[in-house]
Amino acid sequence: MHKKKSIKLMPTQIIALTFAVIILVGALLLTLPAASRTGQSNGFLTALFTSTSATCVTGLVMGDTCSLWNGFGQIVIITLIEIGGLGFMSAASLVIFVLRKKVGLRQRMVIAQALSVNEMDGVVRLQKWVLLGSLVIQLAGAVILFCRFIPEYTFRQSLKWSIFHSISAFCNAGFDIFGEIAANDSMITFNNDPIICLTLMALVVVGGLGFFVWEEIATKRKFKNFSVYTKLVLLATGTLLLAGTVLFAVLEWTNPATIGTMPTWQKLLNAAFQSVTVRTAGFAGVDQAALTDGSKALSIFLMLIGGSSGSTAGGLKTVTVLTVFLFVIARARGRRRVNVFKRTIPDEKIMDALTIIAIVVGLAFFGAVFISATNPVGFTDALYETASAIATVGLTAGLTPTLNVVSKILLIVFMYFGRVGVLTISLGFLMGNKADDRFRYADTNLLIG
Q1: What gap in Å lies between CA 312 and CA 300, rounded to an integer?
Q2: Among candidates 310, 314, 298, which has minimal Cα distance to 258?
Q3: In Å, what is the CA distance from 326 to each residue of 57, 238, 308?
Q4: Cys-Cys with 309: which of 116, 225, 326, 338 at CB 3.0–4.6 Å?
């Protein structure tokens, strides 16, 4: 008797396929008339686009969230955001912990991949940190927002807004339901409110640091005790936030369509908000279409960098870009090794970083060429759109609803690709038949530079 061979999937394959299933289920739920504000289905493409954007915590939408989707639709969206932001394994792990079940080796492998950690030692403890820390942080954010909303709005509206936007900000999703006040304005309505802006900024930054970094900060506390990775994440994050704030303030200071007419304190607040949100959060404090070309270029650069590995944020990731930056500096100085904090970065890690950057930047660029060639839009705005999609940011210069069907499908693919990760997809579907090189050709000399 021949035994049937069971199909065994790699952890990365499980993650990629599960995300696809979650997106499809979400799309089917959003297709229902019961999810629509008008009582009539918004159509499968709109539902699929929204489901992908929510699950991949991007924030690009086909229309104002509050205008398109009713209470049930918004619940579906925020559920997809939570699952997509924390990872589906967090939800599965919660069930396992509640039932007091043992976490097997295969489950540990999937959790490790979902959290973007290389080792399985302590992965269950880290998963518990993720669940508990996420709940506490989102609850704290919701309480602060509720206290701010309740004096001016009804109890029901304040509660709904505080919970929805706390989850959306922490998960770096960028979805908002402020359309009840002004459709398609996102955070523009509240860009003069320091409490709301600073709370959302704090949630975005914490969510984008990464779960591994949280644990180290909570357990080791002192900077000198942190791992090299955590040190690089904190330095890169702080530098990007400060530099982004200064540059946005300079570039937009006299632009009347964005922050030009605001008082000084509000200009600085919104420059800081743009610096934070453009790195995968997706809330718009000012009209993105009205930004100067310099600000759009800076935004695209920050979008592509994104947050940190193993976080709710997307993008190339801070340490990935910093690794290549350190490599370039070392090579420019004639050094063959890249050293940082008295440690050497392996060549394999540098090559991985270069590969990811080449793939993501290349896709964003050629995607923008396609969109600008098939739609009546400029290349800069098209690149703004594709960078936003593949880096799972969610900011737009107003193009998303106006694009043709093929371009919208391209953005759906980009959002999925950006969230699941270049390496997760490539390794998950290519490592099944991995074979070592059996021979090597002789070296050749090339002229470089």
Answers
A1: 19
A2: 298
A3: 29, 17, 17
A4: 116
Phi, psi angle pair for 123, to nearest 5° = -70, -30
Q: Are 26 and 76 in contact (CB under 8 A)?
A: yes
Tokens at 131, concatenated: 């669940």
Written as six digits, the tokens of 19 are 């995300």
Q: Which residue, 291, 314, 292, is CA-closest to 304?
A: 314
Two structure tokens written together for 395: 């900011």
- Single out the residue of 292, 214, 209 nearest to residue 249, CA to CA: 292
Task: Select from 420, 435, 434 the least CA-distant residue to 12.
Answer: 420
Other residues' Cβ atoms within 10 Å of the Cβ of residue 125: 11
Find where tokens 């669940």 sit.
Answer: 131
Tell me the pTM: 0.86
Return the number of other C-beta atoms located less than 10 Å from residue 257's C-beta.
13
CA-to-CA distance for 230 and 227, rounded, in angstroms? Answer: 5
Closest of 191, 184, 246, 126 to residue 400, by C-alpha: 184
Distance from the Cα of residue 341 to its chain's centroid: 28
Q: Which amino acid is at 158?
A: S
Residue 367 amino acid letter: G
The pLDDT confidence band at residue 436, using thresholds 50, 70 and 90, is low
Helices (H) and strands (E) in the chain, counts: 18, 2
- Residue 113, token pair as written in the block: 């991949």
